[in-house]
Amino acid sequence: MKRVLVAALTVLGCTSHELKAANEIKNTPSEQKKNLLQVLAEDSDLSSFVSAVQAAGWLYRITKQGPFILLVPTNEAFDQLNTGEKSRLSLPENFHLLVKLVTSHILSGNTLPKEGETIYIRSIGGKRVTLSQQDGTFYVDELKILAPPLKAGNGIILKIDEVLNF
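^ that's the sequence the OP posted. Answer follows.
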């Protein structure tokens, strides 16, 4: 995996006031030219997802295709998977399960809900997902995203603290 840079925005440095002020996606125009993988690589707390994407064969897609909305679990969220689940996902005969995990966290498009709006969408892997925005805070199903959405040239990253059921 390519080197991972220190995050420009960390969860610990982001207050609830900053999260509520996240009505707009917080990136400069030059950051928006980066692809999803480049933006992911800037946050070392998302390296487990990058590794899963690579192992599932989706690096090219999130680099060159899109637009996508990535629902990206933190490394801590991956650490919370039980040992049996991690072992099962790492077996070559269960490659399809790894692909299902990754694609359950990828949505087609780049439209986020407006204030007070709820959007129902299916992930690339077929999982039904609810996106909403209340009081300036975005939610994925019932999960509050951990930081303002990050915009890339080919999509948006929403950082979450749980691996979604797949």
